[in-house]
Amino acid sequence: MYSRELNLYFPFIDEEFMFATQPSRYISHLIGHEGPGSIMSYIRSKGWANGLNAGAYPMCPGTPGIFDMQVCLTEDGLKNYPEIIEIFFPYIALLPDVDFKFKLKTPASRFTSRISSVIQKTLPRKWLLSGHSRLREFAPDQIEKALATIRPDNSCMKEKWYGTEYRHDKIPNDLMQECKKAFAVSPQDRLPTLHLPHKNQFIPNEPEVEKQEMDEQALNPRVIRNDSIARTQWKKDDIFWVSRANVIVSLKTPLFYASAENNVKARLFSDLVRDALEMYSYDAELAGLQYKLPVLLDQIVTTMRDLDINKYRFETVKQRLTRGYNWQLQSSHHQVGDYTNWLNAPERDFIVEELAAELSGVTWR
């Protein structure tokens, strides 16, 4: 499947022995943030991008690494990529203003499957299990040194095209001048829609669990509601006593499978709801514990009920779904699998040809 990407590469600092401080972790978190005020939030609202990633990686021992920002572009984003680059540098200029007074909360990671590769690194043996997932020291001087490498005259710009050759050109002088101008903009003249992440309301205030002695552990969930409207099951954790919970809400209706058109519209609706919740749910994902679930569930239900479909986001989501259907049409194994599922489906199902044909006729209004 073809792709449209914008990559900005910057020669970075050598972090090989900075395993205790990891300055790139702070920088990549802020640049890759997807909440309100972020680069991704701004370019998504313009209909220019579907995703953004940022991070540093090593080249070889003893040499500086590379910091890379990768943007997955829409068709409009490809046409407006210079403006995306010009937005990137004012946001970078925001970061030194923070003075990095506060550490960012990072989620715990499972490194067991990666121990074999971690052993080859320069980590102290006592840190092999926690690896690079734990920030042990806070070094603002190293963060500032790393930030100093991310500037217009220290970057390489590259666009990826599927099926075409790479080409190395000098960055146009007018674009370079615009980037330098954007990087040097004063705080008063910065774009007001760009700002640093706000307080994450999903980070738990009291993560401790009050353990209660149980005479007998419950083996199965308990049905607390079962009527014509809803069936609700609930089971409290009485084994591990950790501050973690899962809420699974399944909405069922026969209308989804009444026709291929309904099926496509239902898929579009769910994708648009997920897209509308992207900035809001990003904080919940960062919090890691899926904490304060009533707050998140209330926002999801409210968004489903009051969904205001933005024209740009509708076209972007539709375009993404169209590309997915086209990719399946070009993959013979998917066609065989779809046809087999269609034959064996207990309910009326649809093959991708039917869905793609219906999708082309669905409009914003």
Write the layout of secondary structure elements.
Blueprint lengths: L3 E8 L11 H9 L7 H7 L3 E9 L8 E8 L1 H5 L1 H14 L20 H4 L21 H8 L8 E6 L11 H11 L38 E5 L4 E4 L25 H17 L1 H10 L5 H13 L5 H19 L2 H13 L7 H8 L6
Antiparallel strand pairs: 1-3, 1-4, 2-3, 5-6
Helix pairs in contact: 1-6, 4-7, 8-11, 8-13, 11-13
Specify the number of helices.
13
Low-confidence stretches: 98-108
Q: So, the CATH homologous superfamily of the largest domain? A: Metalloenzyme, LuxS/M16 peptidase-like
Envelope shape: globular
On the 0 to 100 scale, the average pLDDT is: 76
Overall tally of domains = 2
Task: Report the β-strand fraction as a percent range.
Answer: 5-15%
Tell me the series of helices and strands, N- to C-terminal: EHHEEHHHHEHEEHHHHHH
Protein name: Insulysin
GO cellular component, one term: cytosol
Keywords: Metal-binding
Organism: Fusarium oxysporum
Attribute tags:
Peptidase_M16; single chain; Cytochrome Bc1 Complex, Chain A, domain 1; metal-binding; alpha+beta; four-stranded antiparallel sheet; two-stranded antiparallel ribbon; 365 residues
Characterization of this structure:
This protein has 365 residues and is α+β, with helices and mostly antiparallel strands. It has 2 domains: 4-103 and 138-189, Metalloenzyme, LuxS/M16 peptidase-like (Cytochrome Bc1 Complex, Chain A, domain 1, 2-Layer Sandwich), CATH 3.30.830; 254-359, 2-Layer Sandwich (Cytochrome Bc1 Complex, Chain A, domain 1). Helices cover 38% and strands 11% of the residues. The strands form 2 sheets. It has a 4-stranded antiparallel β-sheet with strand order 2-3-1-4. A two-stranded antiparallel sheet has the order 5-6. Helix 1 (23-31) crosses helix 6, helix 4 (81-94) packs parallel to helix 7 and helix 11 packs antiparallel against helix 13. The radius of gyration is 24 Å and the shape is globular. Mean pLDDT is 76; it is low at 98-108.
